[in-house]
Design goal:
Blueprint lengths: L1 H10 L6 H14 L3 H14 L3 H17 L3 H12 L5 H17 L3 H8 L6 H11 L6 H10 L3 H5 L3 H23 L3 H49 L4
Helix pairs in contact: 1-2, 2-3, 3-4, 4-5, 4-6, 5-6, 6-7, 8-12, 9-12, 11-12
């Protein structure tokens, strides 16, 4: 289908249906997960639109594509541009919905709540936003300190038991080998194990602990985002 659409545009560059054809190309690319190609096609559709209503429709779909490709800030920019054209009530509702979704995916709870205040006054949604705002977050500093004292405990702190156990056992074994070499007076071997092997893994503990915290916090925030999005689906009809 994409090839046929492109052929039509090539042979009929001045046809009034060119904008719609670019839009269909964008939808086809989006269905395949080819985000960059979809974005380019949507922008071409906007460029060839013959009136503001048509341009706004394509621009909103561009914003949807940008959200799907995790380009949230660019999506917000496109939606704001549509708002500046003073759209009708139905279109304004779609814009508010999509802006809120983009904020939710970025875990920007207060911004999403503020946008949705113009959309709905649902009490359950407000409770979910309060819960998201006060999520229990793990501290990267605490995790790094714990892993510096005892390798692996930083991962234990985040609930990453497998990673923590792996770090603890590996560092213990490498430390044992280095100490054993010293006791056997194999100082060259001890230096090699201590400075080139053990030290490498020991120093990496802080990084792995910090990464474990980021993964944990992201999972917690993602669950909160999913709860909010599920509630949104219950109370509104997505665009």
């Amino acid at each position: 289908a994409i090839t046929e659409y492109k052929r039509f545009i090539f042979f009929h560059p001045d046809d009034s249906r060119v904008a719609k054809t670019y839009y269909k190309i964008g939808l086809a690319y989006r269905a395949q997960g080819l985000w960059q190609e979809a974005i380019i096609a949507m922008r071409n559709a906007m460029f060839h639109a013959t009136n503001d209503d048509e341009k706004s429709e394509y621009q909103i779909n561009l914003a949807v594509t940008l959200i799907a490709s995790k380009n949230y800030d660019l999506a917000q920019l496109e939606l704001i541009k549509v708002m500046l054209r003073d759209p009708n009530v139905a279109l304004d509702k779609r814009i508010l919905f999509l802006r809120a979704v983009a904020y939710i995916y970025q875990f920007q709870w207060e911004e999403a709540r503020e946008v949705l205040q113009e959309y709905t006054d649902d009490d359950k949604l407000d409770i979910l936003f309060n819960k998201a705002t006060n999520l229990p977050q793990k501290s990267t500093t605490t995790a790094k300190v714990l892993s510096t004292i005892i390798p692996g405990t930083g991962q234990f702190y985040t609930g990453d038991w497998r990673g923590g156990l792996n770090a603890f056992v590996l560092n213990s074994l490498l430390g044992y080998v280095a100490v054993d070499a010293v006791l056997d007076q194999h100082y060259a071997d001890a230096a090699f194990w201590m400075f080139f092997i053990f030290n490498r893994y020991y120093q990496g503990n802080s990084y792995r602990a910090e990464n474990a915290v980021k993964i944990y916090n992201n999972k917690v925030s993602q669950r909160a985002a999913n709860d909010i999005l599920d509630r949104l689906q219950e109370i509104v009809v997505p665009p």
